[in-house]
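batch job 7 of whatever, protein = Major intrinsic protein
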Amino acid sequence: MTKDELTEEESLSGKDYLDPPPVKTFEVRELKKWSFYRAVIAEFIATLLFLYVTVLTVIGFKSQTDINAGGGACASVGLLGISWAFGGMIFILVYCTAGISGGHINPAVTFGLFLASKVSLVRAVSYMVAQCLGATCGVGLVKVFQSTYYNRYGGGANMLSDGYNVGVGVGAEIIGTFVLVYTVFSATDPKRNARDSHIPVSNFNYPTSLNHMNNIKKYQKPS
């Protein structure tokens, strides 16, 4: 239904858009649909690829900047490159999976949409399980293909920079996650004129890149 086809009741309410009805919390009928399993598979594959590429990028950065291994500060993609690796992967994967699963690729996004009654409990739990399994498999592939570098650089894990405590790190993660989920809700808001397009959904790469740029430079450093 377009804006010109709104009912008289909706016109009197002042709305020029339609809010989708809330999804039932327990929608077990989804388990009988192939589209549901296709969406779960899409979340698994997307999260696997996301972790595989981004963890490899971080390990590569550590390897190239390792002075003991003959590296230097100017020999790597830099922190900006890491940020854009995360953002670029989100852009590609969300664009590819938005029409299949909604392109969540993050349990925080799925949980937020569940609280807003955008997805059912069955779908939310299935997505989060698939995402966690995909992330585990993605990192597992990194360890299999680059075991030497993986073990040498701690799997690409970071630690807090000097002068920052755990509370600051947790706060940074909370703020970054809020910005990501807020962007998801804004991009999929029915009041958007382009709500039927996947282009605004793909703009998740900008907050993702900025979040990583801010948190890596201010709160974290390679371990």
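notes: The two ends are 54 Å apart (CA to CA).
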